[in-house]
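Appendix B. Chain record.
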Amino acid sequence: MDRQRLTILLVLALIFLGATTFYFAQVAHDSKTRFRAGYPVPTNLLPQDLLTTDQKIPTGPPTPPDIRPTDPILSGNASSSVTVIMFGDFQSETSRQEAIAIDDAIKLVGGTRDIRVIWRDFPLTSEHSKAVMLATAARCAGAENKFKSMHDLIVSEGKDFDEAEILRFARKIGLNEQNFAICMRDPAQTFHISKDAEDAIMHGIKGVPTLFIDGFPFVGFVDAQSLATIFRRDLTISTTP
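Structure tokens predicted for this chain:
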């Protein structure tokens, strides 16, 4: 009886091994055939680092990211009633106009400190060759607690988006020029900016500007009046018992 059971188990094991070998042989053959014929290999056969940006983007609406202690704050603080997270590109005209609209909206509701605005970098490098440099300049200004000052200058006065203009902005807001120059060459800054961009992609963000107001996504430009209406509503909700 034991010998019979052993024989059955051996036969089942051989069948399983044969089926597994056949399956992976077919997968390998299919992949080689697709590669030689120019057909795309199914994404489930590709490792994560070989997927394109579009293939990595989740389906559905964008989801809000976690707020990190290192995120630069343009307005308000951790105790503010309303939180805005803006993914933007400093070389994008629409992103800059959105940043201005947010400031205008805050003024329309009384310039309250109850609205926290957080900036997250999402440079569209395929369209804007200076976007990473501008993001680096803002971060290096942030090392001297002047992120908002550099952000505001790039947004309101940026035209050439070159090193001379950035250096002029650094002098205007009183940065230490030597420290600023060293920071601008630090590869760690580019690494952190790229991580912000990867985080944006993993949260389903496809373009700039993208806003999250108290976790709710707004894709594309939102004017100051509309933002002010949203801020008033959320401020009212936050103060309602």
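Further analysis of this model is presented in Appendix C.
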